[in-house]
Specification:
The complex is a heterodimer of chains A (788) and B (161).
Chain A lengths: L1 H8 L14 H16 L8 H13 L3 H24 L11 H32 L1 H11 L4 H13 L4 H17 L6 H13 L9 H28 L2 H22 L2 H16 L3 H5 L6 H6 L3 H11 L5 H33 L1 H9 L5 H7 L3 H28 L5 H17 L3 H16 L5 H17 L3 H18 L5 H15 L1 H30 L30 H17 L13 E7 L4 E7 H9 L8 E3 H8 L3 H12 L6 E4 L10 E4 L9 E3 L10 H30 L1 E3 H12 L7 H13 L3 E3 L5 E4 L2
Parallel strand pairs in A: 2-6
Antiparallel strand pairs in A: 1-2, 3-5, 4-5, 7-9, 8-9
Chain B lengths: L1 E4 L5 E4 L1 H4 L3 H10 L6 E2 L5 H13 L12 H9 L5 H6 L4 H14 L2 H15 L4 H8 L7 H10 L7
Parallel strand pairs in B: 1-3
Antiparallel strand pairs in B: 1-2
Helix pairs in contact in B: 3-6, 6-7
Classes of the chains: A mainly alpha (788), B mainly alpha (161).
Chain lengths: 788, 161
Amino acid sequence: MASTRRTVKTKIKPPRKHESEVSLDETWSRLSTNIREIHNQNASNLSFEENYRYAYNMVLYKNGGILYKGVCQLVAENIDRLAQSELVPAFPSGSSKDPVQQSQEGESLLKALRRVWDDHTGNMSKLRDILKYMDRVYTKANDVPEIWDAGLDLFLKHIIRPPIQDHVTSAVLSLIQIERDGYVISRSVVKECVDVLLQLSVDHDAKTVYKRDLEPAVLTASEAFYSAEGKRLLETCDAPEYLRRVEARLDSEQARTYHYLFSQTGDPLRKILERHLLTHNLSTVIGMPNSGLNVMVDLDKFDDLNRLYRLFLMVPSGLPTLRRSFKDSILRRGREINLASTSIDAGQDMDDGDLNDTENTKGKDKGQGQGRTAMGPPTLTLALKWVQTVLDLKDKFDYIWTRAFDNNREVESSLNEAFEDFINLNEKAPEYISLFIDENLKKGLKGKTDMEVDAVLDKTITVFRYITEKDAFERYYKNHLAKRLLLGRSVSDDAERGMLAKLKVECGYQFTQKLEGMFHDMKISADTMQAYRKYLEGVLAPEVEISVTVMTSTFWPMSHSSASCIFPEVLIRACKSFEHFYFSRHSGRRLAWQPSLGNADVRVQFKARKHDVNVSTFALVILMLFENLTDDEFLTYEELKTATSIPDTELQRHLQSLACAKFKILKKHPPGRDVHPSDSFSFNNDFTCPMQKIKISTVSAKVETTKERRETRDRIEEERHHQIEACIVRIMKDRKHLTHNDLVNEVTRQLASRFQPNPQNIKKRIEGLIDREYLERCEDRKSYNYLA
Amino acid sequence: MVHLVTSDNVEFVVDKEVVERSVLIKNMLEDVGETDQSIPLANVSSAVLRKVIEYCEHHRGEPLPSADADQNQDETRKRTTDISEWDQKFITVDQEMLFEIILAANYLDIKSLLDVGCKTVANMIKGKTPDEIRRLFNIVNDFTPEEEAQIKKENEWAEDR
């Protein structure tokens, strides 16, 4: 090595000892003076290098300990001095109650704290630079904190202690309180103070002084304030106002956190608000009389409702409370609607006799009918009104749901539940809905565009969905449809088919199978009639022109008993002619004539003039008996009955329509509204009417009488029995062996789309099937086996 | 350009980039700001400063080691005793100058130069007996013979025989 050679060659000179030119004491005294100058803000006059050198030399010559301790001492002294001169005079006196003055005192204290901090950090940063060598070499070796951290510790020890810390904390709290009371404070001052506390931590662990001391104080104060605020607001405000205030508080607290508290305080603070302002008071607010949810819905206060929704969504128990309230609101209104329809209905049932009367007056002139007894038409209008009100209710609540509740799924399900509940409470719901559709398809949709038609039908479908007894609806709909088709009352074929398509989508092919069959029949009949007319050109036509609708019996509801009667000769010939034609085209079929469903146009000569009268087939048969009678001759009820062999109920009805209704073609002796077996009838030659054509109808869509309803019910029940049995057999055939509960569950599930079967009924059906040896009971008496 | 004045009042004008290899000077410049005033270096003589500047010039542009070097980096740095060729030639100076350079590098906070110097001294010590080391660095033996015998015995296990 080169150096070894050199030492051998030349004489060894001891290396120059690097003693400083000055002694330790001298160095330290110069350095400490300079440090004091720094503390007095006179740093600009000093030389960086000089001080660095002093410190360097001290550490180099193993005096690092003295240096370190000395500097710490100086820093501590400076901090104390600052505290005395800046902070103590700024302590709030606590004597004034005026918030403005209080806030000013608080602010000046916090400003003083910040000034002290800024001074201190400025000094420390300068010291750090000149003491870099010490930090590098001495502190690491001796396991003491670097000078910067030591400075923080000193600050902590000398400043953040009672009484200073207490004053600072209470100043911050009082400023927050003043701001909460609505006054303006200087937010930046508080922020700066908070920043100071955020940078100080005891023992260098994760918890800053802020987190340890200030934050808990703030949270406690907030807790107290907001629990009182919650009570205060409940007492003084109504629901919308309460919600507005709560929202305002939430916003202001968020702003507060953002502007001058630490962001982590935001969450616990928010929770306090939610707890005291929302969670505790949820049901009280929503149920407030005169201003709660119900009133808001009544008055369409969408903004308030939306605010309610947003606030309630913030707490876990909010949404369930809202849903419950919402559902109750709907249910209440729904029940009112039901009540409105049933109360008048009850009156109606008592007066069945009158009903028949007024039904007959339905024709071109509804107005007169309404004047007589307010029973008949209003019953239909009641049904229509019911459906319309329900639709309106749905519209209203749908709108609220979209506008105020943000299409929330859970609220939607509450809405659906509520509607389902109250709609099914009304047992006439299936009938009413069918009537509504009927009315629309007969008249209501006239003049509407396709889209409007679609809209109305869609709405009805939504209500339809809510019914659980879909098979009842099917029955009514079939009846109404049959009448519409047969009497040609349907306003638009497209609309009919549209409705059918929608029902098919909802309920499946089976539901609409028969209905489609009915349409098909109508179409075939039209074709058949065309062919028949052609055929008539070649043969002798009967005197009476007939048009026939051929209905496949399984499709059409034979709701009215297929009464038959004795046709007059003329009619028989016409019928035979058609039959001849029909059987030439199709073999192996049987035709049964249904006089109860037909109608006829007949020209009747009265004394004054001729009128074209449209009557039902039965009425025609009756009238024809009077054809050749003179004015004085009359026929008794019994004679009429024998001649026509029309059953009593029908006979009475049609006689009523001819003799007791608006257009009295016949005269009844004695006159009166009801027909009795002792009456007799004669032709009313004196009949006059301003119109040339008149229509006497008996068959019209109406709400069922109680009797009819009971009949329909029974029929529905019967069909249900068959359905249940078929279902049971189907299931058992598949599974071969099932327990009773499983079987009941399975049956309920499969039939759910049509109706809700009663478990008792199912049990009876099972027993019936056991008797008929379709099933057998197992030994454990709980399950069943299928018997092939 | 930066002006440096040594203890013997010799002024050096150096490029900022070169002189900033010294962390101390770099900090000083940052703190004091752009000024025409020269920086006094009372601890360093002109001869030494000349050598130091020569070193910095040669190594200009190299990345400075980070201020808080990782412990790992420290370990690897200390373990290797190889010095680059130019550095070796550069550090071939008499012992006094060598020590001066080390002290200056320590004062001015030029880690790489400090390392080079200390590695050189370490290499000088490596493989020598205590007597040889004493002679090299002119250290007075202040052990009593008994103490010395004691230490020798204790350290026997470390010697390769």
